Amino acid sequence: MALTTPCNCLHQLHRTSFLFKRIVSSSSRAPQAVFIEKTLEEPIIVVREEYNVDLIGPPDTLSNLRPIIRGILKNETVLQRKYRNTADATQKWNQEFWQKHNTNFLREKEVYIKKHTSESKPHLNADEMSEFYRSFLNNYWQTHVAYNFEWYGKNFNLLMLSLRVYMENLQRKIL
């Protein structure tokens, strides 16, 4: 890890501030989210409470999923809290599944490569690796099907909760 000098910190702060301003002013991105650039070693993010944004981090090295820190509304209703907590629980479940799955994949791939290589043949070509990929997918087929059905259920639940939150907000505006 590189030493952090005052000049380096100021550069990172300025860069992060620039990224934040660019992202917030960009109409092509969702106004509710702030994306943290992956190249920053230690991003410094200052977000005012009234912005109420979700922070989205760089991809996790094992799961390849981006962590999300959801903003909490100042006057959050019970239903909004339920939606946020359910979304966080779904994210955690998804993160754990893909960490475990990708760890298994990398471990089994390493074993396969060691088993099928030698000093005279140190590398496997794409066709030889395709046998491993096919075998891995066949072995985990039921796991993937179960994951997909559970994932669909969780997403449908989030969709229904978001619809209820939308209706609640609409009702508050009308009344």
TrEMBL record:
State if Endoplasmic reticulum is listed as a keyword: no
Similarity annotation? Belongs to the COA8 family.
Alphabetically, which GO biological process terms does the record hold? intrinsic apoptotic signaling pathway
Q: How does it sit in the membrane?
A: Peripheral membrane protein
The UniProt keyword set, sorted, is:
Membrane, Mitochondrion, Mitochondrion inner membrane, Transit peptide
- A Pfam match is COA8
What is the name of this protein?
Answer: Apoptogenic protein 1, mitochondrial
Q: PANTHER family of this UniProt entry?
A: APOPTOGENIC PROTEIN 1, MITOCHONDRIAL, CYTOCHROME C OXIDASE ASSEMBLY FACTOR 8
Compartments, record wording? Mitochondrion inner membrane
Q: Which InterPro entries match?
A: COA8 (IPR018796)
Which GO CC annotations does the UniProt entry carry?
Answer: mitochondrial inner membrane
Signal sequence, start to end: none
